[in-house]
Amino acid sequence: MSISRADRPRLVITSGEPAGIGPELCAQLANVTLPPCEISCLVDRELLETRAPAGARLDHLKVLHRPLATPAVAGKLDVRNSTYVLRLLDDALAGVRNGDFDAIVTAPVQKSVIAESGVAFSGHTEYLAQRCSAPKPVMLLVAGNLRVALATTHLPLRRVPDAIKTPMLLEILRIMHHDLQSAFGIAQPRIAVCGLNPHAGENGLLGDEDLHEITPAIETARASGINAYGPVPADTAFVPREMAKADAYLAMFHDQGLPVLKHAGFGHAVNVTLGLPVIRTSVDHGTALTLAGSGRADVGSLLAAVELAVELVQRRRTAAH
Q1: What is the pLDDT of residues 308-319, one digit of tens each?
Q2: Residues 244 and 170 in one domain
Q3: pTM for this prediction
Q4: Quick one: 123 and 156 in the same domain?
Q5: 260 and 288 share a domain?
Q6: What is the pLDDT of residue 302?
Q7: How far apart are CA 305 and CA 200, in angstroms?
Q8: Is the N or C terminus of the chain more exposed, i.e. has fewer CB atoms within 10 Å?
């Protein structure tokens, strides 16, 4: 069934770090087949034109011009443009809140240069949550039917065990359960919870967090009707037999779950933030400074983020009726 122009999901894309590949990925969207939607791109117009590949039909994009603080050079970070990057996010969020847009799609940012500007910034997920007053954002990566959420995100590895606490895990499981139902349409989502330690701690021999923090969270979640199970040893959690049992995974730290997901779908995976009052999807990769301006950046993940955002908007609309 065709979707009328008036009913098409309205997406706003933030072009991200101007020295990275975000602007040229946005330009590439003008030349690919998109799902029925209306796309507006927040970007410096001259930057977009400069980075666009030859033959890009930029007249097919609705550009919402936001001027750079200082001219951007591909591959060379400039802390003076950190305010520009954050303004793109703030304007996108304001647009969704006032009804101009249905969802936000984000191109990659460079966390280090924003932090260098004096802003406490650990990533899109945390920044948008703070702006939305959302108490617990959850990062979920999606590649086809593989969905991996993270208990901790951009945290140094030595701090991870101290962060793994029962109340936090229980809150994440509740958010995952709710959003997998409401956003992804999974009636009774099965959530596999990875152990933190080798062999999920091997009954305390290899660490006691699995016994004393992870297991109680799972048990409490199950008592409330959430189909969570584990802790599953992470070294076997993603073998085909185990993957057939799960609709989603909860990994304990960034590099426990994401290597598997990116192996399965790098360049076509999508980052989704659960626990927000707005729909936000993003690419599964960074700013790729060494590729910026080369014309070799792959638009696949940004296109997938657009496609998933459209799907989530449509499902939310259906649920509302």
Answers
A1: 999 999 998 887
A2: yes
A3: 0.92
A4: no
A5: no
A6: 96
A7: 33
A8: N
Between the alpha carbon of residue 144 and those of residues 37, 148, 257, 305, 309, the distances in Å are 21, 11, 15, 12, 14
Number of domains in the chain: 2
Residue whose entry in the numeric block shows the structure tokens 């930057």: 47
CA distance 122 to 111: 6
- Alpha-carbon Rg for the chain, nearest whole angstrom, is 20
List all residues 6 or more positions away from 274 whose beta carbon is below 8 Å from its beta carbon.
137, 138, 139, 140, 149, 175, 176, 179, 183
Looking at this protein, which amino acid is placed at residue 293?
G
Do 5 and 130 fall into the same domain?
yes
Residue 144, both tokens? 């086809």
How many CB atoms are located within 10 Å of the residue 116 CB?
13
Using CA atoms of 119, 262, 199, 240 in order, give the dihedral in degrees to the nearest 10. 150
Helix residue spans in the chain (DSSP H): 22-28, 45-51, 82-97, 111-116, 124-132, 160-163, 166-182, 209, 215-223, 240-243, 254-265, 300-320
Closest CA to 93 of 253, 278, 231, 257: 278
Nearest in space to 242 (alpha carbons), one of 224, 260, 266:
260
In the sheet with 146-150, reading across from the earlier edge strand, the strands are 62-65, 38-43, 10-14, 103-106, 279-283, 270-274, 138-143, 146-150, 248-251, 190-194, 227-232
Q: Pick the more confident residue, 321 or 68.
A: 68
Do 109 and 285 form a contact (C-beta atoms < 8 A)?
A: no
Amino acid at residue number 288: A
d(CA 252, CA 237): 12
The secondary structure element, H or E, covering residue 216 is: helix 215-223
Residue that has been written with the tokens 């790098």 in this structure: 266
